[in-house]
Every structure is written in C-alpha cells, then in structure tokens.
Hints:
Layout: E1 14-22, E2 32-40, E3 46-53, H1 63-66, H2 79-90, E4 93-97, H3 100-113, E5 123-125, H4 126-133, H5 142-148, H6 159-175, H7 185-193, E6 211-217, E7 233-240
Amino acid sequence: MLPRPIPALPEAPGFAVVDVEATGRSPWRHRVVEVAVVLLDARLRPEGEFATLLDPLGPVGPTHVHRIRQADVEGAPRFREIAPRLLELLAGRVLVGHHVSCDHAFLDREFARIGVPLPPVPLLCTMGLARAHLPEARGHGLAACAEAAGLGWFPAHTALGDARVTAELLRYCAGVPSCPPDDWTGPLREAARVPWPRLGRARSRPSGDAVPLLRREASYGPWLPGAQAPEVVLTQAGAMSSSA
C-alpha cells in the first residue's frame, strides 16, 4: 500500500506498464519480438497482465541479450494478430515504461505498419522518476534502479519480467516523500479523454483457429555479461478468439 495514495479518479482507468524486446535498436528497421503489459489502476493496484512472444517475420536479433531463439517464436502470433487486444489494454491509460520513449516508439511503429496510428498519450518514465527520487541508485538502468529500491532479482530482458519490476519501481517512487502523487492526476485525466482506435478481431489464421499466446517465465536474477544464461520456460498462455 502506498504511504500517500493517489486520489481516486473514477473516470481514469489507470496505468499501462509496457516493455518490449526487439530484434534490434531501431523501431524503423527492427521488429518487436516480445511484448508485455502490466495494468495498474489509478491507485497503482494490480489489475492484470498480458505477455507473449511474437513472430518478427525474420531473424530474432540479439539472442545474447534477450535470450530469444529463432525456434522460440515458431507458432507465435504476429503483431497484427494481437494488435486488437493491445489497443484494448492501452486505451485510456497513462503509458509507463523504463525509458518509455523507446517502448512507445517500437509500439507506435508496429501499429503504423498495419495502418493504425496511435493517438498522443501521456507517458510516464520510471527512469526519469528514478533520476529524481532514487539518488542512491548506482545507475539509471532498470536493474540498478530495482536494486536501489530493494525490489530483488527479476528475469531481466524478458518483457514480462521487466514490466513487472517497472510496475513495482513505479509504486516505490510514488511512495517516497519527494514524489507528490497529485502530479499524476492531470496525466490520468488526460489519458482517460484520449480517443483510441479499435480493431475487430477478424480471423487471421488460415485454419480459423484461435491465436496462441506464448509466454516466457523464469525465476532468475538480472543477466550479467559472461554468466551462463539460465533456462527460460515457454508456456502457452491461453489463446485469443479469432472471431470478430
């Protein structure tokens, strides 16, 4: 529970904490290969989460960083197959991320590829919050900030692991005396008023089968250069209906 809770805003859905893993550093030249969203209400209470690997329709990129192998994305959904669900999750919420402009740029470009312009939405960066309210951190990367906040180890460079710890970092920063929660009431109201596009869930697979979601789960700490990569378990995290 936050020491000083954010005032309740009935018209504001809350926050969407996002993280993406990509095949490279350029949103224009590279693709999202994994995406996760952790939903928090206006008081920063957990509401749900979504995560899946994605088929980037090409090489998965730096496996030594994100540890996603080409075989891992076989059968994974394409971005356009999960786009309708992503729009539903993000609509009306403040978009949160650690270096959120990077995650937003990749999502914006992926939606643009399927002809869907993302509306201008309020962004909240936990890296910026940590710079202002976590001066004891050794650096401003997610692992250093999580360590300084006492959040423990997490599966770094997995989209869901990073999104979960980013949500916890947001809650931590919101609770320190130097971070007045009233500063967020404006962005929450602004986000709630933004009109979002919607996409029908038309059939996207020749078989008409539901679109599978592939989630990575792991219970190890931040990856360190030279360390042996721990095992990551792939699980089929349900499916999305392929009918409209």
